[in-house]
Amino acid sequence: IHGLCLYETPYSPYEDSIIAWGGILGQLILFIPATATLVFVGNFSVGVLNVLLVMFSYINATIMITILTPSAPFDGKKAWRLPRILLKAKWTMYQLKRKKILR
Q1: What is the mean pLDDT of residues 25-46?
Q2: Local confidence band at 1 (pLDDT 50, 70, 90 cut-offs)
Q3: Sign of CA dihedral 79, 9, 28, 57
Q4: 80, 68 contact by CB (below 8 A)
Q5: Measured between alpha carbons, how far is 53 from 35 in angstroms, rounded to an integer?
Q6: Please, which of 31, 65, 68, 89 could form a disulfide with 76 given CB 3.0 to 4.6 Å?
């Protein structure tokens, strides 16, 4: 359940936020098929498969919510900076176009 991702220091806060969202995407890739299987197929006769489906659905949902918590030890603090970074970049582009520095 616990993982560790090692990477070099990001070039910018934008890259740091994208890396943080990558962890959420990884959890989501496991969550969607497991949840769809539970909803459409239901339980299997093999207990191990049921445990895996529950782990990849309910537990992954809990992990995603926990990771997105905007506090220091979690990636949510970095991930939730992305909307602000994108809005700031869009505003900067607007200002540069308005001043006719960019077309």
Answers
A1: 87
A2: low
A3: negative
A4: yes
A5: 7
A6: 68
Compute the distance between CA of residue 46 and CA of residue 4 in angstroms, rounded to an integer.
31
Q: Which two tokens stand for residue 5?
A: 């991702």
Distance, in Å, from the CA atom of 45 to the CA atom of 50, rounded to the nearest integer, reads: 8
* Model pLDDT for residues 9-35, shown as the tens digit of each residue: 778 889 888 988 988 898 899 899 988
Classify residue 74 as left (phi > 0), alpha (psi -120 to 50) or beta.
beta
Residue 12 is classified by DSSP as: S
Distance of alpha carbon 67 from the chain centroid: 8
CA dihedral sign of residues 66, 68, 72, 74: positive
